[in-house]
Amino acid sequence: MARIAWADKHCHPQGMTVSPPIDDARARFLLRAIHDAAIAASQPARLMRGHVPPAPAGRCVVIGAGKASAAMASALDAALLERWGPGVPVSGVVATRHGHGAGLPSGRIAVVEAGHPVPDQHSLAAAQAIVAALHGLTADDLVIALISGGGSACMEWPVDGLDLAGLQALTRAMLESGAGIAEINTVRRHLSRVKGGRLAALATPARVLTLVISDVPGDDPAAVASGPTLADGTTPADALAIIARYRLPVPAPVLAALRQAGPVVAGAGETRVIASPRRALEAAVAQARALGLNPLVLGDTLEGEARELGRAMAGIARSAQAWGDPVRAPAVILSGGETTVTLVGGPIGRGGRNCEFALALALALDGLPGVWALAADSDGIDGSEDAAGAFVAPDTLARARAAGLGAGEALAGHDSYSFFAALGDLLITGPTHTNVNDIRLVLVT
Which of 38, 52, 55, 386 is deepest in the core (most CB within 10 A)? Predict the structure, then answer.
């Protein structure tokens, strides 16, 4: 088995020191340490103090939506008390995914837990409570919007003609269609009363500060949670084209109204992206270097089918190990972004995009010695399962065969969660209180 040098000879002129061979436990430790560094760098509790604005002459209303919104609200409330003292009235409400508000200190900002990835009745209640919180504002007031990925489902109030059942059917159809996240959010924002800048418009004439934890490729703040306080420039015609392309189930009266709708004009305000996939990967790179690994970042905006990306990254790992190209081992290959899983055929098993990526990677590596991997969703939930993602080891396929598991069959049936659960290779973190999209790591020794 390959040996790994933990020291960098550029830092140690005497030459590189060689550690004992990498074993499975050490490889998993390295992958988890790099993953955890990315998560730690994206925590609201670490970031929020640097983004407290001057106190308003009037009151401060905090709104928000997303998987990180409860943690953002808790951190912001503490930072506001520290900076402003108790004299400024602070209130508001944020919406997060079920289970993502647990264990956080309660404060002056209410938290509503709601459905994700499919909206539920709590999602509607959250949107209505947020809209109510914006009533009666003046130019002396300040609205702070805390936006993170997942907010599209956690907070929703559809347009007339689209009820909750219809919204849920539409959401499921979009998620299963293979449409990209930008396409899905375009449809969402034009069929909603609270997205695409509409909350900022409702907050007028108050000043609006939007703090964003980005989970989208390119970190466009208007794309996160479908931009409740930020219009993004898409049009109703764009939404209609996507609906037609994927044959999405939108009621005819809603389509007719959409054809006559005009663009959304958002209220003026300031926007800051306080955490993002790129910054998370930068923290992961720093940790990898500290562990003596050569990092190679493929980018933070990778999209496409999860299984195809798994095969592609397996090819890069093979080249790195055999030829030292495009990176010399010992190395870790990193990527971020949001892949898709197009569900075809049936029956459909259990699994999110990171587990599907990991299973495709394992099949493509075919037991290649000296290569391990970890793919995980930074929010701690891969799709709708309780795992963040999964580990891949050189013996993954061998252990599967010994257990009577068919890796190819599991991939064909989108049953990657069940496959890795049977091997004990799921990564279970629980909600991480942040959301900077997927973190994929391939360790090459």
Answer: 38
